[in-house]
Amino acid sequence: MKHIGFLLFLLFSYSTLKSQIFPDKDYPILFSDIQLGGFFGDSKTFPDCSPLIPAKQIDSCYLAEKTLPGFTLKDFISTYFILPEENNNYKTNDTTLSILEHIEVLWDELTCQKTKAEGTMLELPYAYIKPGGRFREIYYWDSYFTMLGLNESGKTELVENMVKNFSYLIDTFGFIPNGNRTYYLSRSQPPFFSLMIDLLSKIKGEEVYTKYLPQLEKEYNFWMNGKEILTPNHTTSRRVVLLPDGEFLNRYWDDDPSPRPEAYKEDIELAKLSPEPDSVDFRNIRASCESGWDFSSRWLNDGIGLETIETTKILPVDLNCLLYHLETTIAKAYQISGNKKESENYSKLAKTREKAIQKYFWRKKAGFYVDYHFELEWQNMPNQLAGIYPLFFGIADKKQAKKCAEFLSIHFLKNGGLVTTTKTTGEQWDAPNAWAPLQYICIEGLENYGFESLSDTIKTRWLNLNTSIYTKTGKLLEKYNVEDLGLSGGGGEYPTQDGFGWTNGVYLKLLHKD
């Protein structure tokens, strides 16, 4: 019974995406051999290949040809597949350009025109920005921070086109996938769509809220799916959790408990180290990907080893703050449209969630917001930057904000900006790494409560680090080392990528705040 929902999803996907492929399911024998054999250095490469013959015929061709004299996988792949383009070296890596000139040129290099449904790539009817490097498609939460910079560059049509693309994805699939690939269709990412609508409304006016109200509600229904069946004896369903006192809060999830196609070998090898059933490990890994924090000590039972990952047991403070904003945005959209009853309904939902955020996520003794482990009924340690989201959305009171600012200054502030967590594990969403979106969230959150001195310090250190690395390398990177400014950010499943959409966007937004 556990997997009925995903099986129904697969049936829907196969019936509506006839021209698309699910490589681990359409040609599982070849796929497993290539991925487990490590034929490509990056596990994402083969899922991004497009077959030149019907996908269902690939395995039969492979089995028939692999025993022939002189057979090589290299020749087989070149015969039956189109390899994805490499995006690792941009011609703009030229330090004779200023960093601002570099970003403006990069916008053109990172722009993809509308894409058609082909291979694992999902259709998008409008132009968009990809992050860069190995990331050849649109990504959900990346795009909001990229759009901040596009707006500063005056590329408002591209901002609107990206909103239209996400609206199209919501209308087509009922939610916004992690990215526009078939292998991302079982999960989303942090729900920033309502903030995109806020941004677009500043460009186009308040009518944007009513125009995209249907999509805002569909997004909300996706995250709250299963709420109606929860009872004290059945407290979880997909992304919704019923708490003992009757509150509903949300977690990250994935509907497919199998290895990720884009990290197939890595997931299978990790599952061997865990005492949990493989399906539990795979779902927790995928849920961490939905969080955007893939991976971090934040999701680890022992805070160290990835084999102890337990993402689905944790209520994340950032996700619930984002859903609070989604509820208030829908309430605003209904108010603008003249529907007082529905506006009051969503305002009530937001108020109820706000109280729950204060109850479960505020760790009074530390003076910081934390995640909540709902199975253990335990507040997690205050060691990660998502604890500032309540300041970004104005949920904290003044005393709480003051405590958070003090905690941030003592534990997270480094020479290059704010470190992601206070733990060093080798995972990319841990120390010593820092990421542009979290710098922006923290800077804005502090400014909301009048802590301009600290926010200016963070902003200056972050911009200086970005500029320094660009001067040396001609690149803007996806993540940075803020503890040792002579070293680059690292860790995780793949090398640090350049491009890079959200770094460019946040850099421009912060620079123009002056």
Basic shape? globular
Sheet with the most strands: spatial strand order: 5-6-7
Structural class: mainly alpha
Number of separate strands: 16
Which parts are unreliable, with pLDDT below 50 for 5 consecutive residues or more?
A: 1-17
How many H/I helical runs?
20
Q: What is the radius of gyration computed over CA atoms, rounded to a whole number of angstroms? A: 23 Å
Task: Give the termini distance in whole angstroms.
Answer: 56 Å
Residue-averaged pLDDT: 94
Largest sheet: 3 strands, antiparallel
Helix content: 40-55%
Per DSSP, what share of the residues sits in E-state strands of 2 or more residues? Answer: 5-15%
Q: Would you summarize the structure shown here?
A:
By secondary structure, the chain is mainly α. Helices cover 48% and strands 7% of the residues. The protein contains 20 helices and 16 strands.
